[in-house]
Write a structure and sequence with these properties.
five-stranded parallel beta sheet; seven-stranded mixed beta sheet; Rossmann fold; elongated; alpha/beta
Length: 417
């Protein structure tokens, strides 16, 4: 097991293991209808067979459950942004199983692709919640899918824990879901840090914002706008777009014509940010570009992404912690030298958190939830993304973000004054 709370006492009965059966030896009356017809040796054989049968029943009742523990994994695994989450979760499960599993039981992932679509996420959540063999869920990846799925996971007579590695919209934990947790900072942190970096480090006083009109985009937009204005800055343009928008020409033309913006802020995902970036540069717009953690992967766009700023809960090379170094080495070895992103690191930590919760509390869904809720500041879990402790709403306490910048195809920590 990874670092965390001390394990439960080995003397305590483990949940899921049946208690020994209290078997009473039957009274054998020599004048019973059957035994009265048997000779002495036959009576002895009948009694011995009966005793052996009852003993085998008792042993079977005491045998611990060795079936695999199923953990749901939900995300957009057919998309590039879902790959790191999938691969890191598989790595964590493999490591835990190679070390003997949890309570002498192996873990097994139930992988469900939600395609980053809310309707699909709702169906996936219902499937996982209604399978009694699924003890917990790691997912979903995006804010919109996680919020909609949370309604399902927390409903019914047997709710199930979900831990999101990357859903950052504050609304996720603002409605009192007891079985929902996340290991990442919220947009309250991302938007604020982006605003401060734009104002203080880039010296911007006027910013143009293009935001994806969904839970994530509106979340980043709101916190960025509030903080940037508080600092004394002005939001020069603020335009929404859809994930299916292909032509950003009208927005970019208006920004270019006004000529006041000193930074272009994109509150959306990497796919649309890439389109915006190409169209902006093609029009000769050379403004610094920045965005939230959903821009992860933009570095693969090549030279056009050079200098793009983004916030992240995790940058692979930002910590020399032994646990992180070991994770990076194992991930690279298992995946052809690939490097995980913040979604992968968060999923890796989430699997280990669930394993610890099972080890300490038991395999029932309620026990897992209660063990996770008990991870407070005094009993924090240390993962590859840093220190994890939960508040009463399932948010991670004191989680900050890093401002990174694309340099020569890599995201490195940006310099601040």
């Amino acid at each position: 097991m990874r670092a965390g709370q001390a394990g439960a006492s080995s003397l305590a009965p483990r949940e899921g293991a049946a208690l020994p059966l209290a078997v009473s030896r039957p009274r054998c009356h020599t004048d019973s209808p059957i035994e009265s017809l048997l000779t002495g040796p036959d009576i002895i054989r009948v009694r011995a067979t009966t005793a052996l049968f009852l003993a085998l029943l008792a042993v079977a009742g005491c045998r611990p459950n060795r079936s695999p523990l199923l953990i749901g994994l939900a995300g957009p695994f057919t998309e590039s942004r879902g790959q790191s989450m999938l691969l890191a979760a598989r790595l964590a499960v493999r490591e835990i199983n190679d070390s003997g599993g949890v309570r002498s039981r192996q873990l097994r992932l139930v992988e469900e692709n939600d395609s980053a679509q809310t309707t699909r996420a709702i169906a996936v959540a219902a499937t996982l919640r209604d399978d009694p063999a699924v003890v917990a869920v790691v997912g979903h990846l995006t804010s919109g899918t996680t919020i909609r799925a949370a309604d399902i996971y927390n409903a019914g007579s047997n709710p199930v824990v979900e831990i999101s590695p990357s859903a950052s919209n504050p609304d996720l934990t603002g409605v009192g879901f007891r079985y929902t947790f996340r290991v990442c900072a919220t947009d309250l942190v991302h938007g604020v840090e982006l605003a401060r970096f734009a104002f203080r480090s880039l010296g911007a006083r006027n910013v143009a914002v293009l935001y994806q009109n969904d839970d994530y985009g509106r979340g980043i937009l709101g916190t960025f706008t509030e903080e940037f204005r508080r600092l004394g800055g002005t939001i020069d343009e603020r335009d929404p777009y859809l994930a299916t928008t292909a032509d950003f020409g009208p927005y970019l033309e208006r920004i270019q014509r006004a000529g006041r913006a000193q930074v272009l802020m994109i509150a959306g995902d990497r796919a649309t940010a890439s389109v915006i970036l190409h169209q902006a540069r093609g029009r000769g717009i050379t403004l610094p570009v920045m965005g939230g953690d959903a821009l992860a992967g933009i570095q693969s766009e090549g030279a056009i992404a050079e200098g793009v700023y983004l916030t992240s809960n995790y940058l692979p090379q930002s910590s020399g912690d032994e646990k992180n170094v070991s994770f990076l080495r194992a991930y690279a070895a298992a995946n052809g030298g690939a490097v995980p992103d913040h979604r992968g690191a968060g999923a890796y930590d989430a699997i280990y958190l669930i394993a610890q919760a099972i080890e300490q509390g038991g395999v029932s869904r309620a026990a897992i939830r209660n063990s996770l809720a008990a991870i407070d500041s005094a009993h924090a879990f240390t993962g590859v993304t840093g220190r994890i402790a939960f508040d009463d709403h399932g948010d991670v306490l004191g989680k900050g973000v890093i401002v990174g910048v694309v340099r020569e195809g890599r995201i490195v920590r940006a310099r601040t004054p």
